[in-house]
Amino acid sequence: MMEQFFKMKERGTNVKVETMAGITTFMTMAYILAVNPSILGQTGMDQRAVFTATALASALASFCMALFANLPFVLSAGMGLNAYFAFSVVLGMGYTWQQALTAVFVEGLVFIVLSVTNVREAIFNAIPNTLKVAVSVGIGLFICFIGLQNSKIVVDGATLVTLFSFKGSIENGTFNSAGISVILAFCGILLMTYLLFKNVKGSILIGMVALWVVGMILQAAGIYVPNPDAGYYSLFPTQIFDMPASLAPTFGQLDFSFIKTADFFVVMFAFLFVDVFDTLGTLIGCASKANMLDEKGELKGIKGALLADSVGTIVGAVLGTSTITTFVESSSGISEGGRTGFTSIVSGLLFLVALFFSPVFLAIPAFATAPALIVVGFLMLQQVTKIDWNSDLLEAVPAYICIFAMPFMYSISEGIAFGVISYVVLNLVGGRGKKITPLMYVLAVLFIAKYVLL
């Protein structure tokens, strides 16, 4: 029965590989269970309720991904979208978190319409293959940058970003927290790379667990010293088991009076725009990495994947969390061999388990998960060889723009936008207007309008 549904043999995988992939994906994105309540909590939302809502919505959306599309993608509350929810809509514009949840809810409904009517699928298929490869490469650099930030290897500086200063950490007395964490992150990159070189199955997951264990040993020896004020917590869980918090403070807290205002459509469209193109970008990048795109550059099962994303967003809004979207960290599980929806099922189950063992999952340090993102970024960067950089500059330059825009503008959707606009403009002025599909023209106009009006 399982083989008939998931078609593991057909995709060259098995239950063991898929299980390891699901665990790996969950481990690399478990941070969202700590980060999302922290961000949304600044709006006045109950953080424990947000934790429960995030875990439940992530599990349900991931199950939908498996059932609707049989793809190894995992979903949760999108980073960036949660920040827009909290800092722009609520704290910036002055709307309540209930009204912001309503905008997310309506955005999810619109998302379903776009999915069922094939609009999003058409957008996916309209993007040229060169740009699809560029999206994969750009995402690789993007998640590498996220990993460098999460590990504190790269920090804020006079040049926007700079390397962590060990000398500075010694002088200000943070070496035993920040400095040790950075050293462990560097060691994690080397360890995971070595395990990949040796073709060890589960290398990324093994590396994360090994780093965590080493960190606990160093803490027990007094070498690593927790500093909660600076964001460096104890590596030992405060307790193992904890009952899930009630959803009552956030469940069904929608305020539809917000719909009557003009700002509602601006807010809702912003949520929709980022969600659509972040999701498409992630699907393109991860599917390209897994060689799931056919000869036309299309992804089988994309309609189900987009529908799962939409359902997750709607359910998440009702439960009490910001937009649910496909996570780029899914690429870590794909790198471990995940090729079917069983990977999503495993990750979804772990989100449910996390409800009862939240102290354990919240104790996983960034220096253990961040190296995984950096190494996966390298694996996704390998796709760059599929782009012809010499014979056709009108194809290569938009790909280049798409690639650098994602990490430097810190947004998958911005990378797609600049890639599409530059592709249309360059090919149009280069006398190859007939090569551009009508939908690409529409997308370019919409992207330009977005920058002018929003």
Automatic annotation (TrEMBL):
GO terms for molecular function: purine nucleobase transmembrane transporter activity. InterPro entries: Azg-like, Azg-like_bact_archaea, NCS2. It is a multi-pass membrane protein. Keywords: Cell membrane, Membrane, Transmembrane, Transmembrane helix, Transport. It comes from the Bacteria. The chain crosses the membrane at residues 21-43, 49-68, 73-94, 100-119, 131-155, 175-197, 204-225, 264-285, 306-328, 348-381, 393-424, 436-453. Its main location: membrane. It is found in: Cell membrane. GO terms for cellular component: plasma membrane. It holds the Pfam family Xan_ur_permease. Belongs to the nucleobase:cation symporter-2 (NCS2) (TC 2.A.40) family. Azg-like subfamily. This is Putative permease. It comes from Catonella morbi ATCC 51271.
